[in-house]
Design goal:
Strand 2 and strand 3 form a beta hairpin. The chain has six helices and four strands, in the order E-E-E-H-H-H-E-H-H-H. It is 45% helix and 4% strand. The protein is globular. The strands form two sheets. It has a two-stranded antiparallel ribbon. Strands 2-3 form a two-stranded antiparallel sheet. It is mainly alpha-helical and 240 residues long.
Length: 240
C-alpha cells in the first residue's frame, strides 16, 4: 500500500493511493481462535449454514452476496432494495449464531471441510458489512466500480484537504490523550454524516455520488485509526 504524501496548502487535488488489503490465507475462529485454511475463492464449496452435524441433510445453495448470509438482519438485501445503514448489533448477533452453527469442530469428514469454507466466508462477509467504508466499497464493486483499487480516485475539495491536514497536525501536537477527545467527537460526527450521505446515494442508485462519498469517508476512517493508535510524539502518517 502506498503511503500518502501531504501536499502544500496551494494544492487543491490530492490523489489517493490504493487501499489494497493483503490477501488472507487463513481464517480464525471467533470462538476457539484456531486458524484454518481460508477458501473463499473455492466456488466448488457449498453453503453449510443449514447443515446439521448430526445429519447428512443437503446444504442450501451458496449465497451470491454478503447480504444473503444475514437474512435476519438484512432481509431486503443490498441497496437500492435495502438500506445502506446497518444495525451492527443485530448483525453481530446473527454473525455469532452463524459461526456457532458452521464451527468446524461440530462437523466431520466432508462436512468439516465445508464448514471451514463457510466459516471463512461468514468472517469475510461480517468484516466487510460491519465497516461502513468496506461496505460502501463492496457495494460499488458489485456494480463494477472498484474504489479501493482505483489509483485515480481523488478529492478536489480544498476545504476538506485543509481540514485533514489540520487534524493531522493537531493529533501530532497532542501532549495528552485527553486532548484527543474533541477531535474524536468531531471525526465521529463526520463519519456519521458520510454514512447518511451514502445511504441517500445508494437509495437513489446514484453511484457517482456514492463513489465520491466513499473516497471522502476514507479520509475520516484514516483519521479515526490515527486517533485510536495515538502515542505521544509518534508521527502521524495517514494512509489512503
Amino acid at each position: 500500500m502506498a503511503s500518502s504524501r501531504w501536499l502544500g496548502v496551494s494544492t487543491v487535488q490530492y490523489i489517493l493511493p490504493t487501499s489494497r488489503q493483503p490477501p488472507v490465507s487463513r481464517a480464525t475462529c471467533v470462538f476457539c481462535r484456531n486458524a484454518y485454511p481460508q477458501s473463499t475463492k473455492d466456488k466448488t464449496r457449498r453453503w453449510v449454514s443449514t447443515l446439521s452435524p448430526s445429519t447428512n441433510r443437503k446444504a442450501s445453495p451458496r449465497p451470491q452476496t454478503h447480504y444473503e448470509m444475514f437474512p435476519q438482519t438484512l432481509p431486503s438485501g443490498p441497496p437500492p432494495g435495502g438500506p445502506f445503514a446497518i444495525d451492527t448489533r443485530q448483525l453481530r448477533k446473527e454473525f455469532l449464531q452463524l459461526q456457532a452453527q458452521a464451527h468446524p469442530d461440530r462437523h466431520s469428514g466432508k462436512n468439516k471441510a465445508r464448514a471451514e469454507g463457510a466459516s471463512a466466508r461468514i468472517n469475510e462477509a461480517y468484516k466487510t458489512l460491519q465497516n461502513p467504508l468496506l461496505r460502501a466499497q463492496y457495494l460499488l464493486s458489485l456494480r463494477g466500480i472498484d474504489v479501493a483499487e482505483d489509483e485515480t480516485a481523488r478529492v478536489e475539495d480544498p476545504e476538506l484537504l485543509m481540514g485533514v491536514m489540520e487534524t493531522r497536525e493537531n493529533i501530532e501536537g497532542a501532549e495528552e490523550e485527553v486532548e484527543l477527545a474533541p477531535m474524536k467527537e468531531a471525526n465521529d460526527a463526520r463519519i456519521d454524516d458520510s454514512v447518511k450521505i451514502l445511504d441517500a446515494a445508494f437509495k437513489a442508485d446514484n453511484l457517482d455520488a456514492a463513489k465520491m462519498e466513499a473516497v471522502r469517508l476514507r479520509y475520516w476512517v484514516n483519521i479515526k485509526e490515527s486517533l485510536d493508535a495515538w502515542e505521544k510524539g509518534k508521527p502521524i502518517v495517514l494512509v489512503h
